[in-house]
Recover the amino acids of this structure.
């Protein structure tokens, strides 16, 4: 089950994944393994949260 708050990040990351047919080799292995988008979505969300918090802090001079 995917949280509603994660949908936007997952859609963005999935749009960057390669599309097309995956060729299966003679030894039964498929093509290049793609990254786990759920792990990437969590990293994306945490980085976004950090940047948002950083932007809200007043700049000291």
């Amino acid at each position: 089950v995917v949280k509603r708050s994660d949908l936007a990040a997952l859609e963005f990351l999935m749009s960057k994944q390669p599309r097309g047919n995956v060729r299966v080799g003679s030894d039964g292995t498929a093509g290049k393994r793609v990254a786990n988008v759920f792990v990437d979505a969590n990293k994306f969300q945490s980085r976004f949260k950090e940047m948002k918090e950083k932007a809200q802090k007043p700049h000291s001079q």
